[in-house]
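U., I forgot to send this yesterday:
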Amino acid sequence: MSEIRLRALVTASMFAVLFVVTANRLPAFAQAPPPPVSVANPLAKKVTQWDEFSGRFEPVESVEVRPRVSGFIEKIHFKDGQTIKAGDPLFSIDQRPFEIEVQSAEATIEQRKAEVELQLSEVERARPLVDSATLTRRDFETREANLAVARAQLSAAEATLRTALLDLEWATVVAPISGRLSDRRVDVGALVTGGAGASTILTTIVSLNPIYFVFDGSEADYLRYIRLAENGARPSSRDQGNPVRIKLADEDGWKWTGKMDFVDNRLDARSGTIRGRAIIDNPDRFLTPGLFGRMQLFGGEFDALLVPDKAIVSDQARKIVFTVGEGDVVAAKPVELGQLQPGGLRVIKSGLGPDDLVVINGIANPAVRPGAKVAPVPGEIVSAQSN
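Result:
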């Protein structure tokens, strides 16, 4: 072996020894520390349950305006869609035929009064004649009968006059209720039919303040409310107007408030639902019949556990929350969710206990997953004032 090759071999051996010694003296790479997360026990609180239903607004009163007498329309006193008050004139029917009937009835009454006076004088003249036996009792009774007939005819004539006056009054069709009119169904000059038969529809009126909200509740909801009423936890809406709040299709908040007004007496056998009704104040007449809305009905108060809604994670079809258990290890717990409360807190119906430590901040970190070790930091779930 040449001297040059020997020197190269010795040099390589020295470098190898030096690398091994140096490597043994270097510290091992440090593992990443556990990610910090905020944890807190679920917030125990008494909450108010609001059950949601869909429905539509309906008028408290709805009337088809029809004439009570027949005749030709002479004048229309409103604009289509106008808001009116009870008693406002709507249509005028030609009154001349009814005025003639009134005059005729008044003339008949004068005639009947004259006949009554005549028969009364006949009776008064005959009375002393009967006492003196100049007139028979039979003739006197005949004169008394004629007086009774005359008086009856006068009463009939007075009734005919009242009927004629009533027809004359009905020739002006007035609004039976306050509310908003639909469009007119007839024009000036049209012949309309009155009475109780096939009378002509002139227009329709719906009342606006207050207004009903009508909805259908399920059989399960009905049974739950009955049980709550039996236990004294919530009064029946048949006995007491439980509060409701409503929002329209373009609203985010529950702006409209009212109370329950009616619950039907039976469930629909085909749909398994029961009809309910709430009454809402509508002073500015913004709400109109037919509008769709979502309603929340007071469903009672109960003790519940709440966690921030942002702490809930979707796992396929389940909802889970992360909890920190023994050894600061993360575990996933499936939960059943309830309603969202003010302040972004969600009611947990089942799946959590009051002593569980729930991860409320830090779950966005990919390292925070079931089975991972974390560094828990005490946090707090703060309740918000209910609106």
